[in-house]
Amino acid sequence: MAINRIRSKKKEGLKSLYQKRIRPRVKVLQAQRDHALRKMFLINGVAAFIACAYFALREARGVSRNEAGLAFIVWGIIAYASWRKHVRPLGMKFKKEVVEKVFKALVDDCEYRPDSHISSGSFDDSHLNNSSYNTYKGEDHVKGRLGHLDFEFSELVVTHEDRGLRPGGGASGNSSRKRKRPVVRFRGLFFESPHNQNFKSRTLILDDVAERLLGKGVGRFFQKSAARSGYELVQLESTEFEKRFKVQSTDQVHARVLLTPKVMEGITKFSKKRKKKVEVSVTENRVYLMVHERSKNYFEPRYFGSIVSFKDLTEIYDLLRLFEGLMAELDVHEQAAA
Fold this sequence. Notes:
Layout: H1 2-56, H2 58-61, H3 65-87, H4 89-106, E1 108-113, H5 120-125, E2 135-146, E3 149-160, E4 165-167, E5 175-177, E6 183-194, E7 203-207, H6 209-214, H7 216-225, E8 232-234, H8 239-244, E9 245-249, H9 252-258, H10 261-274, E10 277-282, E11 286-292, H11 310-337
Antiparallel strand pairs: 1-2, 2-3, 3-6, 4-5, 6-11, 7-9, 7-10, 8-9, 10-11
């Protein structure tokens, strides 16, 4: 009950913060953004007009196609430069004046670093990603406490790009370096928290596409055959949970003890409500949580319409509560074992 009261107070505090301090500041930032966008569109419009006029005069003046193309390249450079100068700085202002205040209202001993991220070592240690990658980027690194829980998280974009040499065209058959579109291994929020139980096993709760598409029988066959090295497929009693997730563990018994009905219900409920792909890893001394996103960036202002809404902020609140709830279940097991 004490935990629920703390959660309720924090949510009410967030609402009060939004109404009294964030909402007025958002209106100011929104006016600054609209002014910057008008300025950017004016500059881009003039640059585009000049480029089009230059292209239209290509044949009349004998301008080569390459020179006409150069005009559009220059226009593109001007468009990007005007975005960087007039609009992009609002993003950092937004993070300092809105996002940081939200985190400090929700997280105890909060440290917020917009330009930092969780290390790739932590990402690898989770075992949640089973594919190679060669680009690891992130931002919005948050560290702090939720009650007695130490944790950190950040946004990550992890990709793999094929950078090898490929056959070139033409009669010569020379090889040339051609870049393919990067394959996204993970995009979204990555949480990490230590625990004191010193487990001797590892358990992965992974998104289950096979059972959703192929049904229970065929899906289970593919799950078993695709189990990661050193892991076994764990079969559980919750039908709804198993439609969405597959569990692999190095210890079947411990995995079943870990995945109480409350834990399975919490993960399933969050995944259904937010329509998110959620994956969890419990290792020897840490818990990791992945929340996948296709393109959304949680901590950037919108550049059209309302910059941010209270609904956006409550989604961040719900993410923190999900992670806190999972860790609270681990604490219950620890106390029971004692």
